[in-house]
Amino acid sequence: MSRERLYLYDTSLRDGAQTTGVDFSLDDKRRIAALLDALGVDYIEGGYPGANPLDTEFFVKKPKFAHARFSAFGMIRRTGRSASNDPGVAALLDAEADAICYVAKAWDYHVRVALGTTLEDNLAGVAQSVELAVQHGRETMLDCEHFFDGYKANPAYALDVARTAYKAGARWIVLCDTNGGTLPHEVERIVGEVAKHIPHDRLGIHAHNDTENAVANSLAAVRAGARQIQGTLNGLGERCGNANLVSIIPTLLLKKDYAEAYDIGVSHQQLAALTKVSHTLDELLNRAPDRHRPYVGASAFATKAGIHASAVMKDPATYEHIVPEAVGNRRRLLVSGQAGKSNILAELERLGVALDKNDPRLARLLEDVKEKEAQFYAYEGADASFELLARRSLGTVPDYFEVERFSVNAERRHNAKGEYVTVSEAVVKLRIGEDTSISVAEGNGPINALDLALRRDLGKYQPFIEDLELVDYRVRVFQGGTDAVTRVLIEFSDGSGENWSTVGVSANIIDASFQALVDAITYKLLKAGAK
Fold first, then answer.
1. Whether residue 387 has pLDDT greater than 80
2. Which of 227, 203, 205, 202 is nearest to 214 (CA)?
3. Model pLDDT for residues 111-161, shown as the tens digit of each residue
4. What is the mean pLDDT of the chain?
5. Which segment of 11-15, 480-484, 487-491 scores lowest on mean pLDDT?
6. Ranges 231-240, 306-315, 421-430, 484-493, most confident
7. Which H, E and C letters describe 401-437, residue by residue?
8. Is 484 part of any domain?
9. Pyruvate carboxyltransferase domain spans which residues (predicted)?
10. Any bridge partners for residue 75, and if so which?
């Protein structure tokens, strides 16, 4: 049976740039576009040429893609102008792009109130703008803004906007749930009605996530006839984000009903890079990856309870909806206070540690874990600290260095410019073998100063830690009040691209942080084979 082609259209570089706290540089855009092309996405929307200098520069020279088509986004001609005399349309035509995606109002209320024009003039603007782009040899699309709200208010006019673009030669007419308020059953019904007027292979869906239904709405639109899906990596976008392509792609490729009916142009080999692509984007944005993100999160295939862990080991297919490796992820049997021997054995096996289930050290290790977690340690989020705990119980972690003492001081003072600044200074005294050293460092806060001082002089081990980078620092407080207990989770990475997390617990946040820092460096030395 032949399968219908679905096309993936990524808007991360435009919609994603509207995410709170996200600002792409030109280099970021180029790197993300290359990731998307390698993943197998069909269209990559680079931004809005003419709207800002960065996007305009991005379209001066079209990126070299192996697969994807490069698309420029912009508005149809403004009221009172012809399409050929509109600077916004001119910027789109001047852009080095394969395709142009216009946006136009599809809700009659917005046409009258927001644009202040007539319904007829809006339709004329759609027709003229699409026709001009087609004449210039561009693959042309129309994003019908607020289409679902418009359809509910005035279905005849919303359909007129879509049909006008179709008759003018638009390759794709994309129905937008712009405020994210439409539900899946409504999307399926409305797209199905539109599909009676416009061919399936010309219809697209663009869903926002304001009701947590953007992925479901996109899939509902496919069932009803849409054949282009617009979305973003990791669901980036304004407010609550857009449809998450990181969830949509594996669903279409791995779930039977979709996989048998549709071809999305992404191979299984490309899909296996999905987790890496998702995490790479987070790294470029200086964000910690969401551990609970479907398919690609660190907890997406994690089992904590002991009874489930035992069953997962025997028959993982009944506990996991896909094979984790299909998306480049892996199974994790978490070590926690709820864990049993199965979790511990599975995690040790993953670490390359062979231990018989009847070995008395296993029971001791399990008790150690439970005792630690009773003190608020959390090894499910600190894999490196667990490995060190396990290997120390087996006597396989060398004593690389000993911290004899450390201190941290925070001081507010005038700098050379006469400005008040707060400076943190840390002092660490280390013993390595027979040698003792004292390191001092100033930092942006006490933890940063402590990290710098600890790593300033590790003697013969210094070459092993030169590429270390602290990428995430998280604090949780238990038993709030003056007797609070603080848990610190720290994540490091190195030049190999490996990430690992460590944990420290104490009534003193500095002490908890120092525990996690020492574990992180010890783990790096262990993995590097330091003697």
1. yes
2. 205
3. 999 999 999 999 999 999 999 999 999 999 999 999 999 999 999 999 999
4. 91
5. 480-484
6. 231-240
7. CEEEEEEEEEEEEECCCCCEEEEEEEEEEEEECCEEE
8. no
9. 6-272
10. 103
DSSP state for residue 396 in the 8-state scheme: -
Q: What is the pLDDT of residue 407?
A: 95
CA 367 vs. chain centroid, Å, equals: 36
**Rounded CA separation 145/156 (Å):** 15
- Answer whether residue 97 shows pLDDT above 60: yes
Domain of 445, CATH number, reads: 3.30.160
* Nearest of 259, 354, 270 to residue 68 by alpha carbon: 270
Whether 449 and 424 have beta carbons less than 8 Å apart is answered as yes
- Which pLDDT belongs to residue 343? 62
What is the length of the chain? 531
HSE-CB for 463 with a 13 A CA cutoff: 5
Q: Which domain holds residue 427?
A: 402-457
- Which among 189, 190, 246 has a CA at the least distance from the CA of 214? 246
Listed residue (495, 503, 531, 496) closest to 519, CA to CA: 503
Please list, in sequence order, all residues whose beta carbon lies within 8 angstroms of the beta carbon of residue 291, skipping any fewer than 6 positions away: 297, 298, 299, 381
Give the whole-angstrom CA distance, residue 293 versus residue 299. 8
pLDDT digit string, tens, across residues 443-483: 989 999 999 999 998 999 999 999 898 988 888 887 666 67
CATH number of the domain at 188, please.
3.20.20.70
On whether residue 259 sits in a domain, the answer given is yes
The predicted-structure confidence for 239-255, as pLDDT tens digits, reads as follows 999 999 999 999 999 99
Of 266, 282, 305, the position where a domain reaches its end is 266
What local confidence, expressed as pLDDT, does residue 311 receive?
A: 57
End residue of a domain, out of 233, 266, 299: 266
Amino acid letter for position 309: A
Let me know: does 382 contact 334? Beta carbons within 8 Å: no
Give the 3-state DSSP-derived string for 68-91, with helices as H, strands as E and coil as C. CEEEEEEECCCCCCCHHHCHHHHH
Distance (Å, whole) CA 306 – CA 323: 21
- Name 304's Cβ contacts closer than 8 Å, sequence gap at least 6: 334, 336, 338, 339, 343, 380
Number of domains in the chain: 2
CA dihedral 389, 392, 396, 401 (to 10 degrees): 100
What's the whole-number mean pLDDT along residues 214-238?
A: 98
Angle at 41 between CA 36 and CA 47, to 5 degrees: 65
